[in-house]
Amino acid sequence: MSILVDNDTRLLVQGITGSQGAFHAEQMIQYGTKVVAGAVPGRGGQWAVGNTPVFDTVHEAVATTDANTSIIFVPAAFAVDALLEAADAGVALIVCITENIPALDMARARAYLDSTESLLIGPNCPGLISPGSAKVGIMAGHIHTPGNVGIVSRSGTLTYEVIYALTERGIGQSTAVGIGGDPIKGLNFLDVLQMFEQDSATEQVVLIGEIGGTDEQVAADYIRTEMSKPVTAFIAGQTAPPGKRMGHAGAIISGGEGTAAEKIEALQAAGVAIARHPEEIAELAAQNI
Amino acid sequence: MKLHEYQSKRVLAQYGVPIPKGEVATTPAEARAIAEQIDKPVVIKSQVLVGGRGKAGGIKLAGNPDEAEEAAAQILGMDIKGLTVQKVLVDEAADIRSEIYLGAVLDRGARRVAIMASSEGGVEIEEVAAQTPEKIITVHVHPLLGMQGYQARQLAYGVGLPKEHVSAFTRIAQSLYRAFVESDASLAEINPLVINGDNQLQAVDGKILLDDSALPRQKELAAMRDPDEDSPTETEAREVGISYIDLDGEIGCMVNGAGLAMATMDIIKLYGGSPANFLDIGGGAGADKVLAALRIILRDARVKAVLINIFGGITRCDEVANGIVEAINSLNVKVPIVVRMVGVNEDEGRQILADSNLPSANQLSEAVQMAVAAAKGEGA
Q: Which residue of B has its CA nearest to A139?
C-alpha cells in the first residue's frame, strides 16, 4: 500500500511531445509506471515515446484509455488551461510540474478545483513516487527503495538528499510527495499527513518544510492533536534573510512571518523530532523503527 | 519585483484612485520647476526601494519653489540604507485631516486576496498587527467573483469612516482590488489614505509588489524595474537564469535547487561557518551556467572558500564537473573549492575533478566541514 499512486495508476502525460514531457515520460515508463496516453492539442493520432497514443484533448484520452492520473509538462502560460482541462475530464489526480505560474491564476484554478473531485499536486513540484510501483514525477527513481516511511516536502533536490540518506541506511519509503514551492497550490502538508495517517503501509512520516507562509504550523497543529504516527522534520532556510525570495515563489519571510524558527518551535511543541541537517533525518527515522 | 512610490501611485491612478498632483525630478532645478507648476506647498520624497525614508530624512516639506529646490538638493544623492537617492517625487502637500490604511495582499493560507483596512493610517501595518490587531479589518475576495460592494462597505464601517466618505471609499477599495489583480501584484498598499483639506479621500503614499512569475505578461510593469532593487551581481545572475542573493559570510555556495541551497547554507552555519550567498543554478544547468555561477561567486572578495553541492538528476554531475574545471582554467581562482556531488553521472563527474586535483566529498556534512575548515585557512 501507499498513497495517491500505485499499481492501479493509469497515467496521462499532458505535453508528452515536448522535450521535458518526452524525456520524463520515458523515465516513468522505465520505472514501471503505466503511461497510457499523452495529450497535446494538434498532435492527436500520433504516437509518442514507448508507443503511447497521443490525443488532442484530455476528454478523449480519458474516454479511450481510462487514465486516472495526469502529469503536466506544458509551459507556464498554458499550464492552468491544462490542469482545468484535466479536472473537467474527471481525472482524479493531477500533478503539475510546471513552474512560474502566476499566483493569481492558481488562486482562480484552485477555487474551481475545489468544486470538483480532482486532487492537485503542485505546481512547481517534482511530483510523487511510491517506490517499486509508480513514479509520477521527475525524481531519479533509483535512489528510492520501497518501505514504510512517508515523505512530504515543499522542495525538490532537498527531498532527494533526504531519500538518498534514508535509502543508504536501508530505510525504505511508502510514498514521497513533493507538494511544491508555490504560495498557492493543490495538496498541502495537512492533506498529505492525513493520508499517511490513514495508510496502513506508512509507519512514520518525514516532513521537509522551508521558510515562508504558515503551512508547517498548520501541519504541526494536526500532528499535535490527531496524528498517531511519529514525524521527523527538517526546515530549510534558518539562515535566510527577511524580504528576500529564496528561489521558490513561496520561500520568503515577509512581515516577520514564515521564519524557520517559528516553524521549528511549532513542530517541536507537537512532539516532532527536528533534524539539523538532511542526513540526521535518516538517523532520527531509524530510531522510530 | 518592487515598484517605486511614484510608479505605484500612477498604476493606482489608472484604476481611478485619486492621488496628489506631482512629478518626478532627478535634479534640484527640475524639482523647483515642478513646485512652481504646482504653485502650492509641496513635499519632496526620495524614491528608493526601502522602508523608513522619512526617519532617514528622505522626505521634506517645502513651502515654495526655493525651498523645494533646496530640499531636493539635500535629498538627491543621499544614502538611505545603502541606496543612493537618484529620484525625488515632488507632490502637492496634502492637508491631512485624518488618515487610514488600505491594502491588498495575497493570503496564501486562505488562497484568496485579502483586503485590509485600519484606522491606524501612516504606520506600518505589521506594527498595527503586532500591537493592536483588533484595529485591522479584513475581507477575503473570492477569486471567481471579485470584490463586492458590501465587502468594501464592511471595511469602511469597520474603520469608522464618516458616512459621507463611504461611497468614495468603496470605489477606491474596488479600484485597488482591480489594480492588484490586473497588475498581478502580491501586495498593493495605500498608506495613508487621507481625508484632505478639501474633504476628499486621497492616496498620499502607495506601494506595489509584483508577482515575479507574472512579469512575462506584464511587460509595461516589468519595464519599470529599478536596477537598484538588486545588487549588480543579483541582476547579472538573473540575466543568466541563476537565482542569487548576496549574504555577508565567507563561504560561497553553488547548489542545484532552492530548498537544497537553503539547507546547505543552514548546514554551513551549523558547522560554524557563514554563507556568502544563496545560489541556485536551477535544474539541468550545463557547464556554461556553472562557469557563470563561479564567476559571480568569486567576484565577492569576502569569499574565502567555495562549496559546490550538486544532487544530480536533471542536472548531470559530469556537466557540472566540466564547468568547474573550465572555470578554474579560465578564472584566477585563489580560494579553495570543495565539491560534493551525487546522483546522475557522479562517477564521471568525480573522475573529471580528480584529474584536475580537486577534492570531492560524498557526504554533505563532510563537504561542509571541509569548506568551513578551508575558509578558516585550515586546509581543505
A: B313
Q: Which A residues 139-178 touch B at CB under 8 Å?
A: 139-140, 143, 153-161, 164
Please answer yes or no on whether A158 and B260 come within 8 Å at the CB atom: yes
Task: List CB contacts of B365: < 8 A, sequence separation 6 or more.
Answer: A277, A279, B267, B271
Distance CA A86, CA A113 (A): 10
CA distance A64 to chain B (A): 32
Cβ atoms of residues B168 and B98 within 8 Å = no
The pLDDT assigned to B255 comes to: 95
Kindly state whether B266 is in contact with chain A, defined as any CB-CB distance less than 8 angstroms.
Answer: yes
Please tell me whether residue B342 adopts helix, strand or coil conformation. strand
Chain B CB within 8 Å of residue A101 CB: yes
The residues that bridge with B209 in the sheet, in sequence order, are B2, B187
Cell numbers representing residue A28 in the block:
516513468
Q: State the cell numbers at A56.
A: 488532442
C-alpha span between B329 and B323 (Å, rounded): 10
Torsions phi, psi of A237, nearest 5? 110, 25
Q: Return the exposure string of A30-69: e unless at least 16 CB atoms fall within 10 Å of the residue's CB, then b.
A: ebebbbbbbbbeebeeeebbeebbbbeebbebbeebebbb
- For this structure, is B189 an active site residue? yes
A109-129 tens-digit pLDDT? 999 999 999 999 999 999 999
Residue of B nearest to A183 (CA): B108
Give Cα separations from A141 to A53, A126, A161, B314, B363 (angstroms): 24, 12, 13, 12, 20
Give the whole-angstrom CA distance, residue A11 versus residue A39: 11
The ipTM assigned to this model is 0.91
Are B275 and B307 contacting, i.e. CB atoms less than 8 angstroms apart? no
A residues 198-217 lying closer than 8 A (beta carbon) to B: 208, 210-211, 213-215
**Cα torsion A262, A263, A268, A273: sign:** negative
* B111 at A interface, C-beta within 8 A: yes
CB B205 within 8 A of CB B191: yes
Q: Is B273 left (phi over 0), alpha (psi -120 to 50) or beta?
A: beta
Task: Tell me whether A108 touches chain B (CB under 8 Å).
Answer: yes
pLDDT for residue A289: 84
Nearest to A107 among B112, B216, B247 (CB): B112
Could you tell me if B129 lies within 8 Å of chain A, comparing CB atoms?
A: yes
Q: Pairing between strand B243-246 and B305-312?
A: unpaired
Check if the beta carbon of residue B72 is closer than 8 Å to that of residue B90.
yes
Q: Which residues make beta-bridge pairs with B208?
A: B188
Total Cβ atoms within 10 A of residue B13: 15
Question: Are residues A281 and A287 in contact, defined by beta-carbon separation less than 8 angstroms?
Answer: no
pLDDT of residue B41 exceeding 60, the answer is yes
Task: Please list the pLDDT of chain A residue by residue as tens digits (289 residues).
Answer: 699 999 999 999 999 999 889 999 999 999 999 999 999 999 999 999 989 999 999 999 999 999 999 999 999 999 999 999 999 999 999 999 999 999 999 999 999 999 999 999 999 999 999 999 999 999 989 999 999 999 999 998 999 999 999 999 999 999 999 999 999 999 999 999 999 999 999 999 999 999 999 999 999 999 999 999 999 999 999 999 888 888 887 788 776 788 999 999 999 999 999 999 988 999 999 999 8
Give the span between the Cα atoms of A110 and A94, in whole angstroms: 12
- Catalytic status, residue B157: no
Strands A134-137 and A127-130: antiparallel
pTM value is 0.92
Q: How many helices (H) and strands (E) does chain A have?
A: 9, 14
